[in-house]
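Case study 2.
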Amino acid sequence: MRIIKLKKKEERRVQRGHPWVFSNEVQDLPADAVPGEPVEVRDFTGNFLGRGYVNPRSLIAVRILTRKQEDMDAAFFTRRIGSARDLRKDLGFGESFRAVFSEGDGLPGLIVDKYADTLVVQSLTAGIDGMLDLVLAALRDVYGPKTIVLRNDTASRELEGLERETRVVLGETSGMVEFEESGIRYRANVIEGQKTGFFFDQRENRLALKDLVRGRRTLDCFCYVGAWALSAARYGATEVIGIDSSEKAATLARSNAELNNLSAKFLVGDVFEKLRELEKQKERFGCVILDPPAFVKSRAKVREALKGYKEINLRGMRLLEPGGFLVTCSCSHHIDQELFREMLIDAAWSAGRQARLLEMRTQSRDHPMLLAAKESQYLKCAILSVE
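Prediction:
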């Protein structure tokens, strides 16, 4: 196994548990290193730090998989994936959840979502791609799924020198799956839907609606397949309206409402425009939910993204009746909690409203955050009372 040595005094962050080694921290990155090649990482004096895989094309030169001098073989992946499963079981998750969350589960570059007996896998790095057969074998051993789908269609794969693809590697599927989360049945498309088809990361935040929406008219913006909207309807909202730009998503949301015998109306359109229209029509809501897709894909776009976040939040605040609740989210790790909070302060001021922060929540526990890697905490969910 090739050895990668760090420069002098560059080992502390890695020793403290961070799984990434950046290219400027390495003494000499071999020019002939193959993207995804297994490597051993040592400090300047030769002390062992860990094993993982290298990519000389990436700013993150090495991602560490283990702090032990062990083989990264089929047994290794079975243990690691089994440990991730046991955590979800101990926490009381049902049959559908995020089964592997990359760095949070000690497997950087790997995402797995479980929809009943269907697994959807995302291989985000050359290292995981090179070991994909071992990963798939381990998933079959741990879960015994009927179907496994590869959703390797993310832009991040191109940065790793990988092609995009979507294919079924076990069993058969039309793409549609049916599953349960928190007592609500859903249908989602694991072939064509966003990400892997559904967003499990908001599971526990959706449960928080129980104390917010009862007896209130509720607006769900960027509603996708209707998870927030249906949760609001289930918890006693008097009227629920969802908005999404995708006709396919809105159609699926309507189907999910019918599946659960819940009442919700789903509109198709640009959320920014719809919010302006609703304000002009002097519509008012007791709860507004804002869960947009990531507005920012790189640090260079943060300022531009903050303008978009501020726009939807000030519009959302203006639509609230006095004492109404705003549930507002950001899923970009480039915008940290403090930036998000400052944006909300600006939005409240521009909207002419006074807001109180009741909670600042984060991602569901099936998306565990590696303590030493703040990058693994990406989701912010603020619950505000707006006067």
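Residues 5 and 169 are 37 Å apart (CA to CA).
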